[in-house]
Amino acid sequence: MRDKTQTNSAGPGDRLIRAGALVFFAGAVATLVTVAPLFFGSRPFPTYMFGLSMLMGVGFLIAAAGVLRAIAAGRRQAGGASR
Question: Is 44 helix (H, G, I), strand (E, B) or coil?
Fold first, then answer.
């Protein structure tokens, strides 16, 4: 018997995980850009660039929320199948 779910279907929380990864990597790039002048001896960037570096933490939290949502959906599905 074939499984009813397709391999490329997005489960609950998958979009949050992808969005979190994108935000995290945007924050990582902002961090590298912000820290680079310290190594090259040039003028540092404005303060708001340091704020953009905080996107790494925000992206991590978004992805963690997606993982928790996927876990909760899996538990609900497993609980419904055992009854």
Answer: coil
Q: Which residue has the tokens 């599905």?
A: 77
Contacts for 69-75: CB closer than 8 Å, 24+ residues apart = 69/12, 69/13, 69/16, 70/11, 70/12, 70/13, 70/14, 70/17, 71/13, 72/12, 73/11, 73/12, 73/13
Whether pTM exceeds 0.90: no
Residue 8 vs residues 11, 42, 52: alpha-carbon distances, Å? 9, 47, 33
- Structure confidence at residue 46 as a pLDDT band (50, 70, 90): confident
